[in-house]
Amino acid sequence: MSDNSLRLVWVYPDLLSTYGDQGNALVVERRARQRGLDVQRLDVRSDQPIPTSGDIYLIGGGEDRPQRLAAERLLRDGGLNRAVSNGAIVFSVCAGYQILGHEFINDQDKQQQGLGLLDVVSTRGEAERCVGDVLADIDPQLNLPPLTGFENHQGVTHLGPTARPFAKVRFGNGNGVGDGFEGAWQETVFGTYMHGPVMARNPHIADLLLKLALDVNALPPADDRWYEALRQERIAAATATS
Ligand code: GLN
């Protein structure tokens, strides 16, 4: 962070932005402004270089072909990896999550190299596509309320020893490999299968990223009433359909 200004980077909106994931950038931006921060939001298209001076990078989900193109371009560019070595925070969803791992299976049924920022490997699930509402308990180390989100993915994700599960599923599939885990995180890099957009359902995750960026333990309270109503509605839906 420089001065009071937060640099928020929304990565490849032209390729990775399904199921309203761009809402994550809106929520992080809004909650930062509500805490008096000046926010510079940069939307970086896939034909532009990734800036290395961002504080928080957000990456959304995508269909299989855009996912392949995004991974190729991010790997060639190298900016996101450099930003993480400088201490940047990354929060990724679904295809974005798979891209941050070591490898995934692409739309041509080939193993494709990811950025290696998370110690995870994604493969194609044998079972039906994982679709539906999810409710999960977030890693107690992160001290956050339960995670609510919507999943829609064929890929499944195995965690290596360095990655910690982001959450433990109560309803739904999450990573989809039978260990009951959903998402992964290590240091300042996070991945989840949750759309929704996930920040609108879980504004405390946006606050976690802001706290990490500001290097503080707490933020001034923000009005959570609208978010809370949405959370309750979606948690009830997850519980009812399971
Ligand atoms: N294409 C990936 C999969 O199906 C990611 C899908 C998504 O981002 N929603 O696993």
Topology overview:
Blueprint: E1 5-11, H1 23-34, E2 38-44, E3 56-59, H2 64-77, H3 79-85, E4 89-93, H4 95-100, E5 103-105, E6 111-113, E7 120-124, E8 130-138, E9 147-153, E10 155-159, E11 164-171, E12 181-186, E13 189-192, H5 198-201, H6 203-214, H7 225-241
Parallel strand pairs: 1-2, 1-3, 3-4, 4-13
Antiparallel strand pairs: 5-6, 7-10, 8-9, 8-11, 11-12, 12-13
Bound molecules: glutamine.
- H/E element sequence: EHEEHHEHEEEEEEEEEHHH
Low-pLDDT windows of residues: none
Question: Which molecules are bound in this entry?
Answer: glutamine
Q: How many separate domains make up the residues?
A: 1
Strand content: 25-35%
Please give the share of residues in helix: 25-40%
Could you give the order of strands across the largest sheet? 2-1-3-4-13-12-11-8-9
Structural class by helix and strand composition: alpha/beta
CATH class: Alpha Beta
CATH architecture: 3-Layer(aba) Sandwich
**What value does the Rg take, in angstroms?**
16 Å
- Measured distance between first and last alpha carbons: 43 Å
CATH topology: Rossmann fold
* Overall strand count: 13
Q: Average pLDDT, to the nearest integer? A: 96
Number of helices: 7
Largest sheet: 9 strands, mixed
What is the 3D form?
globular
